[in-house]
């Protein structure tokens, strides 16, 4: 079995791209359904404590498996051949096979994005354990990025497992020593929590959601404590640029999670180069 897997090593990049396309199809389900699952859970909890009866629709199971995927307008079920990543979208002409309602372009774009990013991970780290961890991290960050951009939620169902997976990933120092991973998780969470707490004391307002604390803790668990200052700086820079490009109106909330996710992924891919650049800058600046 190990010999067979080793024979596949030269095909790591195309295999990762193919696996990414398939994973991207599933991520589309996660991105849409997890926020709905959260809201349904809150509704059920509230009605239970208020003594209210759930509606028939609210009693129906809704998770990542049920109900089956269907067109939101005509409710026609999605057939297996219509679930082939990217290809099905092209064959259908970007429309529902039954009612011809346009299908969002984001579905094939998420699939393509996942395929490309998985391929980059494989290209950078080859047929290794680090690459395997990298595709898991990449998939989770893609889901969190789009969920936060859509809803400004960073679900515990994704951020907390990402913390534990990062610690397990580095249990034997796969990417950073375990000590660095543990300190990264703790310092990642506490740094943003403390910043938000001070901001609330000074202004009386909440400047950031708890999901951002957990996401930075997760990135700290995967990448180590040493990159946290660079990660936060990069995330802030990405956020500012994105806000300027999007021309965010004054007072409009802007999700920070996608910026953290992008910065974390870039550091994972270009870790050695970023570490070298930081050391050069510290030396050049006299620190």
Provide an overview of this structure:
- There is one protein chain.
- With 287 residues, the protein is an all-alpha fold.
- It has 2 domains: 16-104, no CATH class; 128-287.
- The chain has 12 helices and no strands.
- It has helices spanning 2-7, 12-50, 56-59, 87-91, 106-125, 129-151, 156-169, 178-203, 210-223, 228-246, 257-269, 271-285.
- The longest helix is centred in the first third of the chain and has 39 residues, at 12-50.
- It is globular and about 65 Å long.
- The model has no long low-confidence stretch (mean pLDDT 87).
Tags for this entry?
287 residues; mainly alpha; 2 domains; 12 helices; globular
Please give a quick description of this structure.
The chain is mostly helical and 287 residues long. The protein contains twelve helices and no strands. The protein has helices spanning 2-7, 12-50, 56-59, 87-91, 106-125, 129-151, 156-169, 178-203, 210-223, 228-246, 257-269, 271-285.
Q: Tell me what portion of residues adopts beta-strand conformation.
A: under 5%
Secondary-structure element series = HHHHHHHHHHHH
Mean pLDDT: 87
Euclidean distance between termini CA atoms:
51 Å
Please mark out the parts with pLDDT under 50 across 5 or more consecutive residues, or reply none: none
Percentage of residues assigned to helices: 55-70%
Gross morphology:
globular
Helix segment count?
12
Major sheet summary line: none
Task: Give the helices and strands, then pairings.
Layout: H1 2-7, H2 12-50, H3 56-59, H4 87-91, H5 106-125, H6 129-151, H7 156-169, H8 178-203, H9 210-223, H10 228-246, H11 257-269, H12 271-285
């Amino acid at each position: 079995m190990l010999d067979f897997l080793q024979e596949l090593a030269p095909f790591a990049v195309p295999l990762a791209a193919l696996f990414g396309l398939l994973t991207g199809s599933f991520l589309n389900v996660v991105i849409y359904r997890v926020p709905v699952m959260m809201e349904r859970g809150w509704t059920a909890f509230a009605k239970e404590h208020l003594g209210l009866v759930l509606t028939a629709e609210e009693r129906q199971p809704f998770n990542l498996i049920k109900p089956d995927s269907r067109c939101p307008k005509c409710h026609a079920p999605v057939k297996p051949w219509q679930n082939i990543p990217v290809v099905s979208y092209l064959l259908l002409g970007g429309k529902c096979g039954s009612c011809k309602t346009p299908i969002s372009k984001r579905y094939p774009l998420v699939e393509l994005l996942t395929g490309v990013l998985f391929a980059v991970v494989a290209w950078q780290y080859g047929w290794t354990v680090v690459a395997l961890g990298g595709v898991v991290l990449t998939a989770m960050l893609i889901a969190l990025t789009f969920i936060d951009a859509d809803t400004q939620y960073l679900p515990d169902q994704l951020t907390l497992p990402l913390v534990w997976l990062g610690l397990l990933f580095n249990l034997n120092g796969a990417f950073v020593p375990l000590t660095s991973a543990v300190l990264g998780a703790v310092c990642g969470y506490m740094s943003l929590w403390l910043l938000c707490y001070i901001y609330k004391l000074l202004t009386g307002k909440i400047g950031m959601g708890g999901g951002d604390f957990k996401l930075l803790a997760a990135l700290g668990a995967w990448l180590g404590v040493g990159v946290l200052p660079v990660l936060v700086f990069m995330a802030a820079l990405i956020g500012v640029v994105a806000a300027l490009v999007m021309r965010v109106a004054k007072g409009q909330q802007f999700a920070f999670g996608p910026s953290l996710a992008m910065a974390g992924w870039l550091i994972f891919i270009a870790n050695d180069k970023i570490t070298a650049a930081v050391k050069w800058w510290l030396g050049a600046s006299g620190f």
